């Protein structure tokens, strides 16, 4: 148990450093400004991170008195749409920083003293894992806000690694059952549960996400350019975090909507993979028939496996992560870009909401499409092979790309 508590404390600290980078890179005016009606002011995200930590770890798990019950309503994401948040009497930058620090001290004290066993919410440190992932998800949201903000570049990171292997074409995933979702991953969220067997007919899936060069051909044929692309006499430019440069031809395309991804696939004579196909390609081990935690195995993601955790501020070229490929040779399923799949966000058979309906269940239905695999902006702790993200199909301010798939023809299986 000491190990678990130490791990939680270490991850909370590491994650908070990232939140600090994202909120200290700009001045106070910039923090309270709304950079896009799709996004909250950064100062809202910061105090909201603290407020969720207070609600779950300090009050619920810890049974402690509220720090600031008076501000709960301001940071309830269901109460106020993002576009309305700048008009609220939000905590200012200085107050927000003091608030999250106070909450963190109390949460760490709770972590030291609480009994983790005997209550589902705290078993294996679940509530701490949930709050940790919540902050990491907001770190990705804040990174997306940075991408939408005008002005000079304020974030920097080394470029992603180069391509070292030639990855092209498609991979056959044979027909048969596989285990989708999880019942054993301690910090998996309710929508990833329970593990269940899905029989998937044979299909082909792209060995890599669709690249900028491939997507540019679709644009030339009449498709819409991704968000942040601009036309230059010499070709397409892309702006990332305040820097404009020619698109990287062999890097996965990013900032495309579900509709654009689907249109590309149709133009290419293909389709998006279903969510089950994506997960089978990512997790199914043909040698054992079991599902792995990640394409490369059960080991937590390292820098050799995937472009995660905001180590780099953009997707890596195709072929940059051979150590992260699946046994069948499907590359870069984890990290780089979220991949739209052709499935609605729904509950798995046997789904039960936990710890609250608003986490996932209220979003189930045809309005939302699923994205899988995480992006360069996603933390490794919040990116399992079973992890499911969802958004409106028109959205493209997120770090979204895709790969395509097709049915296998009987003659191809003989
Ligand atoms: Fe949130």
From TrEMBL:
Keyword Iron: yes
Family: Belongs to the EgtB family.
The Sulfatase-modifying factor enzyme-like domain, residue ranges: 168-406
Protein name: Hercynine oxygenase
Pathway where this protein functions: Amino-acid biosynthesis; ergothioneine biosynthesis
Chain residues that bind gamma-L-glutamyl-L-cysteine: 82-85, 391, 395
Binding site for Fe cation: 48, 134, 138
Keyword tags: Iron, Metal-binding, Monooxygenase, Oxidoreductase
